[in-house]
Amino acid sequence: METFKAILTKIEVREFSQEPVPFEQQIKVLEAGRAAASAYNRQPWNFVLINEKKLLNKIGELAATGPYIAKSQFAVAVYVDPKNTFYKVDGTRAVQNMMLAGWDMGLGSCWVDGIEREKVSQILGAPPEMYLLTIIPFGKPSRKYKGKKSRKPLSKIAFLNNYGHNLLEENKYS
Ligand SMILES: Cc1cc2nc3c(=O)[nH]c(=O)nc-3n(C[C@H](O)[C@H](O)[C@H](O)COP(=O)(O)O)c2cc1C
Fold first, then answer.
1. Which protein residues touch ligand 1 with a CB less than 6 Å away?
2. Atom in ligand 1 nearest the alpha carbon of residue 10
3. Are strands 131-139 and 108-109 parallel, antiparallel or unpaired?
């Protein structure tokens, strides 16, 4: 898929089909995260690939705003090291890469924040000093998504040369 098309069509997916996702695709998602740029190239992240059904169910129970993790084919727990000033920015860049790589392979995903972090980290055996940024569930979408996003028009959020100066008369991406 063309990168720009992937960016424009990618929406969050919270309903997954039960079609298995090949392990190679799961690794490809992690590779996309690994390739992300980070401040000073410190790469302050670790990823835990979760693809055991029992574990996904357990984590789904600990995610108030993402119980659908239980229905995903795999999920990635993204840990970042708070000793690095830009740890959340760096981790987020890795997440975006993973999501877009997944989308390119026909996989939906969604950022889940509402997690009982301590409990999940204990289950995953993560060191207490590492911050669990998010858990991203992946899987084939269970239904067809149109890819229509609800976003502010470019004319409202971007300016030309001076803050407040109109950029476009008409915004084709609104
Ligand atoms: C930092 C962050 C936290 C989010 N937390 C959750 C969450 O806990 N549960 C959830 O279902 N979606 C969560 N989302 C997804 C947002 O609701 C979603 O990205 C936004 O509504 C745009 O969705 P769209 O791309 O499908 O239009 C989160 C997104 C971000 C960036």
1. 11-12, 14, 65-66, 110-114, 149-150
2. 25
3. antiparallel
